[in-house]
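In these records, each integer encodes one residue's backbone shape. Here is one protein:

___
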Amino acid sequence: MAVIKSCPARSQECVVPAALKKEDFLKLQQLTPVSKFHEEIWLYSLFDDPRVMLLDSPVPLLEVIIPVHGIKSKKLEVILQYWIEGKSMSEELSRLNRQILVQTIIELGGGCLTILTVFMLAYRQLKTASNSLFDEIEQRKIIEKELKRFRLVLDQVVEAIFITDIKTGQFIDVNDAACKQLGYD
């Protein structure tokens, strides 16, 4: 299997042995193109052109490998390999990465702000409810204390005391003296 590099004219110098990964070769055998983006690659490692020797740094390249089959056959006959300058793609990808990062930070910040706001509102409501319950408990303690004092005074009185409901005439409360007078000792 040979790889024909994109050249101005097909010449023997453009045909080189293929060095493919097994999974890439399997895709090509299924007539599926393979592409890879190389962020940094030295051109002199790919081309025997003296002009590329003048470059002092690696460049980004998009490698596209295209399977070719016969007109009547679905059998892989040759593989074409193209190298596309990737500097503009690299810059665009970097710009998109920065844009995605900024958008992610904005979204995360907005989400955190929303969560913080919800927690603060919930905390305020819980604090208000807690204070209200505390006040109610304190009021009930005071009332309970007053009721105990009233009960003590009521039971200390020697005369019978009957507390009744005006509408029904039923006893609401009586003291010890009233119980003795009614025979409930």
The beta strands are 2-5, 15-17, 34-41, 59-69, 76-85, 162-164, 171-174. The first strand starts at residue 2 and ends at 5. Residues 2-85 form one domain. Helices lie at 22-29, 87-156, 176-182.
